[in-house]
Amino acid sequence: MSGGGVGRVKTQRVVLFDRDAPLELESGVSLAPVQVAYETYGSLDADGANAVLVCHALTGDAHAAGHHGNPSRRGWWDTIIGPGRPLDTDRFFIICPNLLGGCSGTTGPSSVDPATGRAYGLGFPLLTVRDLVAVHRALLSHLGITHVHAAIGGSLGGMQALQWALDHPGEVERAVMICASARLSAQNIAFTAVTRAAILSDPDFQDGNYLDGPSRPARGLSLARKVGHITYLSEESMRRKFDRSRRDGAFAPMSMASDFEVEHYLDHQGESFVERFDALSYLYLTRLMDYFEPFSGDRPDLAGASTRFVAISFDSDWRFGSEHSRAIVAELERCAAKARHVEVASPWGHDSFLLDLEEYHRVVAEALGEDVRARAPAPMGRR
Amino acid sequence: MSGGGVGRVKTQRVVLFDRDAPLELESGVSLAPVQVAYETYGSLDADGANAVLVCHALTGDAHAAGHHGNPSRRGWWDTIIGPGRPLDTDRFFIICPNLLGGCSGTTGPSSVDPATGRAYGLGFPLLTVRDLVAVHRALLSHLGITHVHAAIGGSLGGMQALQWALDHPGEVERAVMICASARLSAQNIAFTAVTRAAILSDPDFQDGNYLDGPSRPARGLSLARKVGHITYLSEESMRRKFDRSRRDGAFAPMSMASDFEVEHYLDHQGESFVERFDALSYLYLTRLMDYFEPFSGDRPDLAGASTRFVAISFDSDWRFGSEHSRAIVAELERCAAKARHVEVASPWGHDSFLLDLEEYHRVVAEALGEDVRARAPAPMGRR
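ok -> structure tokens follow
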């Protein structure tokens, strides 16, 4: 095992649906063209049986591991993907696509609508998790993959793994859903609602027609990110990181401007987010999470399916805490599926799924079938 | 006991500080004039010993009980104040002033600065809880009251009762602090920070100079209120009230607009709030809560004080939950004060302090010295 992880990688792009064969969305709307940006790590076995699909969360992208030229700026899940890491690139062929509706190379509301020659804006159709999965399946088909060793993701990523395995259990050997939810609570929806209200009420949002103009709804998107971030960290996590520290010290005069370190942190999160993310994608992807409720209709019978479902949660997560994972597993058991829940202790809240936490990584490796090939112990100092 | 509560009341106004004798703020800034709006219920005993000061919370006002002409529109704490109620107007003379920095008759950032003839805006000085208490004390002095049977309030209201009793224990026989905090957590501050960011980033805020113009930062203030409201309700409370109900039913098409009942509820809260509250007051009053930390300096010795401190919390409150009340009592005990904490079971979160909850009202009555005069049982049907 190398401590260096995945090396230099490149995001690839492919058009999977076009006017002749558009993507038929769950809503009945047809969408074309649909381009997908994706990255891959590792090599596909000759029998094509070692593929692992990584589904990213709300604000992720296809760049999950490695770097694009600067080794110090690495993909969002680089600590978990690589040679000898839980998503072991010596063993698996890992595919990470940017989601439908996203803003990092895959078709979304900021893409050009061929019917008008301008960005879709709010004219983009509303999406479901099933639509995201349909595009994943098309990408895998394009890559010659008919079924995967595992589909895995955190938060919204876990929702995709779940929906796919529910609808097509024969295609997914292991569905690993990390701090996911199959039914947002009223409080969850309330939070996404205020983040959308922040964007929609920013005058620069211009009813979604800002993409052809000079301004972006940066204030609204920044505010949305700040609210989101509060829910990604646990209260304990914020206390450990910031407590009541003030940038200019405890004896500085009071100020209406940012003063407490936690305020500066949120400012930074908001500012850096607007540099890399699009407000319309934020609206569309939060909204499909609100509506996601895969167990609300007829229950699939998974008694004969080989899919193993693992729901992993973190005890300090208050966005999609353990009760969400327990609910997923309870529903899966009602479908006669092979499902289990593992709660990992971590003080870092929802964000834990992005962190290099030993016990968490052990649980993920196990969920991917650690038993199949033993991992070498991690060298001292990497964690 | 009458089921009718306090009858028709009128908000009174008095100027307590003027240019010749300005209010000296803790920051060293002088403020004049300072007008205070207040209401009173009940009668002051001849010995002046039955006064109870009610301190309101962030968005409250002087109109705590009774009505202003329409008996169906009653004060914000009407269920707890009245003949035979825990704040028994047959027994107590109850005073409720609008806070310094507020926007309902007491001087605040939307008041006219005599130096400029225009609204203060962000030129208004930053305040501390001690400043709010200084104005309360001046009002009581104006009313001929030298000490009170009790000072009581919820949330920011409890902070005032606490600060007053710490600084002047001889003036406060009982300090009743309901779901208060003596030290906001990083998460608490993060939430107030995003509500302020919502206001400050609204173009209609115009650096606080909107008061002489035609527009108000309604979008920002509405958004602030929505975020605040999420923290006032518990997750359980939102689940019971709304769960995932959709206004147009479970089979209506998805929508980017408000659809879930919890969204409509937040919209309503935001819209009605901007009709009655000022964005600048919101900024100033949230900010003084962030800085409030009465036990951070030298510890007062309260061994000889007769003041009885009672901290009341609600088990589902996640804004200022029981850990905040326990911390207050722990600090008070280090000051050798007579302090106790009572946790009340309620599923309704922080908002519980405004609700008509039997056990809560019993605890408040007891904190006010229920033992002194037994209450008649509540008639059936009132609760």
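Residues 261-276 of chain A form the longest helix (16 residues).
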